[in-house]
Specification:
The protein is α/β, with parallel strands linked by helices. It has 4 helices and 6 strands, in the order βββαββαβαα.
């Protein structure tokens, strides 16, 4: 049975974050973090599956994406967003779960990430990724806009 996904705006540290959530959470919470250029909607089907299995599924729009505010300070931390949860990330959405789990292992039940390998040191794309890999291409001012404008 498909459950209705609830949408809320959470005020956190002066930002309004859009969060989609579904499920009761008898077994715990699963937080889904999207990649680029996505929003919470990328996780709608896995959210339904984990909710049906007895978990609470939460998928925020990352700061500055979808219906979430963009922070003025890019160094705004994630600490207030997660406690005692399974973390699932995809693409650039893997960085917060990996980082959070390393710094707060007692607040993390597990981590599962897609598309980016774990690195115990900051990941360096230069020289390790193929030419044309979009995070490298889009560092150039105006390049992403040009690619999407095709």
């Amino acid at each position: 049975m498909v459950q209705l996904i609830e949408h809320i705006q959470l005020p956190i540290r002066g930002l309004n974050l859009h969060v989609a959530q579904v499920g009761t959470g008898e077994l715990g919470t699963v937080v889904f973090l999207h990649g680029f250029p996505e929003i919470w909607y990328s996780w709608r089907h896995p959210m339904q599956a984990v909710a049906a299995a007895g978990y609470r599924a939460i998928a925020p729009d990352s700061r500055g994406y979808g219906l979430s505010d963009q922070p003025e300070d890019e160094e705004t931390p994630w600490e207030d967003l997660v406690a005692d949860a399974f973390l699932v990330g995809k693409d650039f959405g893997t960085i917060p779960p990996y980082d959070f789990a390393q710094r707060h292992p007692t607040r993390t039940r597990g981590v599962m990430c897609l598309g980016m390998p774990f690195s115990p040191v900051p990941f360096n794309f230069d020289g390790t990724m193929p030419e044309g890999f979009y995070p490298l291409r889009w560092r150039q001012p105006g390049r992403a806009e040009a690619d999407f404008g095709r």
